[in-house]
Design a protein that fits this description.
358 residues; 1 helix; Jelly Rolls; single chain; 23 strands; Lipocalin
């Protein structure tokens, strides 16, 4: 026989009766606040992750080793970089993508010359600029002393890498960059700074770093409003740097309804009509001589058990309810005439019915 909730100490577990409903004027939200482990919640789209030489199936390939069709110079002319043996090499000025990008995941593979020439910033210097403004430094940082915020994988002039993960000169290296651009209001006020997470050769070297503005040499300019999409640039700093296997995945903002911190407070799957509210409000009692009271005050719904403090409650459907912080569920039951005459509290496989007494 199934246990009754009261038999496992409902009186001492009042928190399990923190049920949920966010009452609005009558219109349903665009989508529901998903219950934990809900089988109705949409699953993530399937993406073939690729392998060491093949990008993910949803990536835009910016350079596959054959041509520079996706790139141009800053003046819009064709790039002068040479393409051979599956890579391109700097020469004749920097290049940028013909397309503009915003928030993204960017993969870039690069190699500094095998023959070491120069030192410090004069050794294997280049850069990857997101939105043509925010630079992740490229440098031969293998046993090469220079200023910390100018090493390979630095957010140039601002954030040194957390560790130096550089391979020896001549070896291929990789950057995996997760970038979120800044956001501005219509009048140009900064709402949110840019953010970088960077893996250098698979090692985390920038962990959600927030630039103070555009990156630059010897200064730190503040943010100035710009479009949410702009080209990605590769710098030509006078050193023969090679690049290959460049691809990008565009990222979209997560729907705030998918953030569990936002749910279910202030949100609901459906709007309840005044008629339904009138049926729900009342006192519900069970055989174990305890009572759940459902009330409506100032447009908000509350529940309390006997003399315990009342708590705001939130709804998942017209008859099914779930608390904000525990796994309890309450389902209001209707009789043959469609009138609410009771409810069932459930926690896992445990259930207890209550009858509406008034």
């Amino acid at each position: 026989m199934r246990k009754n909730i009261a038999s496992i100490g409902l009186r001492s577990l009042t928190v399990l009766i923190i049920i949920g409903i966010a009452l609005m004027s009558g219109d349903a939200l665009a989508g529901p606040p998903w219950r934990i482990h809900s089988m109705d919640r949409p699953e993530a789209p399937v993406v073939d992750p690729g392998d060491a030489g093949r990008p993910p199936s949803d990536a835009i390939v910016l350079f596959d080793g054959t041509d520079l069709a996706q790139w141009e110079r800053g003046d819009g002319e064709a790039p002068r970089w040479k393409v051979e043996n599956g890579h391109m090499e700097t020469g004749g000025g920097g290049i940028r993508t013909k397309r503009a990008f915003g928030d993204c995941q960017l993969h870039v593979e690069w190699a500094a010359p095998a023959r070491v020439r120069g030192r410090g910033q004069g050794r294997g210097n280049s850069g990857v600029l997101l939105m043509d403004r925010y630079e992740v430094q490229i440098l031969d940082s293998y046993q090469n002393r220079t200023y910390a915020d100018g090493h390979a994988a630095a957010i140039y002039g601002q954030y040194p890498p957390l560790v130096n993960a550089s391979r020896p000169p001549g070896e291929w290296q990789s950057y995996d960059i997760i970038f979120h651009g800044p956001r501005f209001t219509g009048d140009g006020t900064l709402v949110r700074p840019a953010r970088f997470t960077v893996l250098h050769n698979g090692v985390l070297v920038q962990d959600n770093a927030e630039p103070t503005g555009t990156t630059s040499w010897m200064r730190r300019p503040p943010y100035r409003a710009h479009p949410e999409r702009a080209p990605i640039s590769l710098q030509d700093h006078g050193n023969p740097i090679r690049f290959r296997n460049i691809w990008i995945r565009e990222l979209s903002e997560r729907d705030p309804r998918e953030d569990p911190r936002m749910l279910p407070t202030g949100r609901h799957a459906v709007a309840l009509t005044p008629q339904m509210l009138d049926q729900i409000v009342g006192r519900y009692s069970g055989e174990e001589e305890f009572t759940v009271v459902i009330t409506c005050e100032d447009g908000k719904m509350f529940a309390n058990v006997e003399d315990q403090p009342k708590r705001e409650i939130f709804a998942l459907s017209e008859t099914e309810f779930s608390p904000a912080d525990v796994g309890l569920r309450i389902e209001f039951r209707k009789n043959d005439e469609g009138i609410v005459d009771g409810l069932v509290c459930s926690l896992g496989t445990e259930e207890t019915p209550l009858k509406k007494v008034r």
